[in-house]
Amino acid sequence: MLFAKKLRTWYLENKRDLPWRTTSNPYYIWLSEIILQQTRVAQGMPYYFKFINTFPEVQDLANASEEEVLKLWQGLGYYSRARNLQAAAKHIVNELDGNFPESYNGLLKLKGVGDYTASAVASFCYAEAVAVVDGNVYRVLSRIFGIDTPINSTEGKRQFKELAQELLDKKDPATFNQGLMEFGAIQCTPQKPLCDTCPFSAECVAYNQDRISGLPVKLKKQKVRKRHFNYIVFLSEEGETVLRQRKGRGIWEGLYEFPLVETLSEVSVENLVKEDGFEEYSMSPEADVRLFNEEPIVHKLSHQHIYTKFWVVTGSDLPENKVSVAEMEKLPVPVLIEKFIDSFGF
């Protein structure tokens, strides 16, 4: 109980003024938690406001088109979050009469909602005594209690959840959970934690045993895959181009991109035009193919690095799926494509 009291005192003195902390509306809190997965607060906050302004009620989100949702999400990455967000909204509207589940177990049934999000919404909105465990919580607890079980292992996830649940202030779980996450975000940070002003420094195992840099422990990530993308940017005299929607599972599902030829390595224009993927575009002999960027643009995702070149094609009839510049600006595209569009200046 002493842990919870210390944490509460620290939180009430140091917490940031964040918009989702001034409401108990489960829709807004759920939305903020989904946005902040894999996203820093500073990056996520503008998206939070965009979403609540565009979709002030869960019904508005449920009734929007997928393209509209993905366009609003553009730049946040991990686009499955946006698709799951809308799927959950549709379920709430169509199956639950627009009412959010009011328990941890009920929230877990929503698409895209796991232990963390269900715990957050249940404790913040309904005062249910369930502990939230996120990256910040892992770091704080592993350091203070000297736990070296890998946080991304099955055993680690169970151990940290049980410890957080044991420490939880059952009378005020919302403040405890907010406080523990906030403590990791601004006090017990990954690099250069503020140990000199830490209320737990006397009992912190990592601090007293000089193990701060070694905790928490995480199993090695899978090998990063290297891919080579060649985007074919058709350009007509009228300023039209071609965009295609990515289908199937994988990165950027549902987003739009220029026609793509993926190769095993960097290629010259002479070799590019011989690729099977390039030949399907049936360009006229007069077509001019020019490389836009000599050095590939490296776009880093969690498990793959994409080396990208853009090839601008003029003097050829455009394949199907041609769009005007005005139409292109309305379509959701990956950040990689968005940056090219901005630099190319259609």
Automatic annotation (TrEMBL):
The keyword Metal-binding applies. Pfam families: HhH-GPD (PF00730), NUDIX_4 (PF14815). Binds 1 [4Fe-4S] cluster. The lineage of its organism: Bacteria, Pseudomonadati, Bacteroidota, Flavobacteriia, Flavobacteriales. Adenine glycosylase active on G-A mispairs. MutY also corrects error-prone DNA synthesis past GO lesions which are due to the oxidatively damaged form of guanine: 7,8-dihydro-8-oxoguanine (8-oxo-dGTP). Its EC number is 3.2.2.31. Keywords: 4Fe-4S, DNA damage, DNA repair, Glycosidase, Hydrolase, Iron, Iron-sulfur, Metal-binding. It catalyses: Hydrolyzes free adenine bases from 7,8-dihydro-8-oxoguanine:adenine mismatched double-stranded DNA, leaving an apurinic site. SMART domains: ENDO3c (SM00478), FES (SM00525). Residues 35-186 form the HhH-GPD domain. Belongs to the Nth/MutY family. InterPro entries: A/G_AdeGlyc_MutY, DNA_glycosylase, Endonuclease3_FeS-loop_motif, Endouclease-III_FeS-bd_BS, HhH-GPD_domain, HhH_base_excis_C, MIG/MutY, MutY_C. One of its GO terms (molecular function) is purine-specific mismatch base pair DNA N-glycosylase activity. Its cofactor is [4Fe-4S] cluster. PANTHER family: ADENINE DNA GLYCOSYLASE (PTHR42944). The keyword Hydrolase applies. This is Adenine DNA glycosylase.
